[in-house]
Design brief:
- A hairpin with a 2-residue loop joins strand 8 and strand 9.
- The model has no long low-confidence stretch (mean pLDDT about 90).
- This protein is globular.
- The protein is of the alpha+beta class.
- It has helices spanning about 30-40, 75-80, 90-105, 115-125, 165-180, 190-195, 205-215, 225-235; strands spanning about 5, 25, 45, 55, 60-65, 85-90, 130-135, 140-150, 150-160, 185-190, 200, 240.
- The chain contains eight helices and twelve strands.
- The strands form two sheets. Strands 11-5-10-9-8-7-6-12 form an eight-stranded mixed sheet, with helices on both faces. The protein has a four-stranded mixed sheet with strand order 1-2-4-3.
- It has two domains: about 5-60, Leucyl/phenylalanyl-tRNA-protein transferase, N-terminal domain (Alpha-Beta Plaits); about 60-240, 3-Layer(aba) Sandwich (Aminopeptidase).
């Protein structure tokens, strides 16, 4: 399959035309309209600093149904003991920056370059990008961020400074999204870590059909923390909030 060259027009080819490795298109920009259009089609940007913007639509697709998250026993015990506290959308920029910094510290490649950080912070301000923070002793211990469109949460990245903190964040997010009637979390590409927590691969045609149905739901635009605090008090008595 060819890789499509994008122009200034906000347009993407059908994701089914992506190469075997998932690469679909190159170029364009990181404007809010273009990024949201991409996610609505199951496409996302992923590239290194200094390279042209690359747009991907890999299949099969790794997803997590909110009610299928597998809570590890050790984490369950830690949560019952109040090891962590949680919030949503309080420190989005710090969460996305930490996701990038952790990868750099591990000497891993990261697509979360400064251009991406600024673009997603603007999406956060517009109410589409959200973070879930995990705290311990008043310090940010871990967290995750992603994009919310319709009934889908597109998970982008997570980080952990304290053991189990990112798992705890995903556990809480899954319970929140289940209560808010989200259909699934798009985890993009397979990792054994996410599979161990309940994520599963589904065929491309199934994913894109589910996606098209889910994005028809009304967007739950942020900020989310007030609704999260209310939910936590009603449904998560063992999960402390900040």
């Amino acid at each position: 399959m060819p890789v499509f060259q994008l122009s200034e027009e906000i347009f993407f080819p059908p994701p089914e035309l992506a190469r075997e490795d998932g690469l679909l298109a190159v170029g364009g920009d990181l404007s809010q309209t273009r990024i949201l259009t991409a996610y609505q089609m199951g496409i996302f940007p992923w590239y290194s600093a200094g390279d042209p913007i690359l747009w991907w639509a890999p299949t099969p697709r790794l997803i997590l149904l909110p009610n299928e998250f597998k809570l590890p026993k050790r984490l369950g015990r830690e949560l019952k003991k109040g090891a962590f506290q949680f919030s949503m959308d309080l420190t989005f920029r710090e969460v996305i920056s930490q996701c990038a910094a952790i990868r750099v510290k591990k000497r891993e490649d990261t697509w979360i370059n400064q251009e991406m950080i600024e673009a997603y912070c603007l999406l956060h301000e517009a109410g589409y990008a959200h973070s879930l923070e995990c705290w311990q002793d008043g310090k940010l211990a871990g967290g995750l961020y992603g994009i919310s469109v319709g009934g889908v949460f597109f998970g982008e990245s997570m980080f952990s400074k304290v053991s189990n903190s990112s798992k705890a964040a995903l556990a809480v997010l899954s319970q929140v999204l289940y209560d808010w009637r989200f259909d699934f979390i798009d985890c993009q590409m397979r990792t054994e870590h996410l599979v161990s927590l309940g994520a599963k691969e589904i065929p491309g045609p199934t994913f894109f059909q589910w996606l098209q149905n889910s994005i028809l739901k009304t967007d739950r635009k942020g900020p989310w923390n007030e609704a999260f605090q209310y939910f936590a008090k009603q449904k998560l008595p063992l999960f402390e909030t900040v």
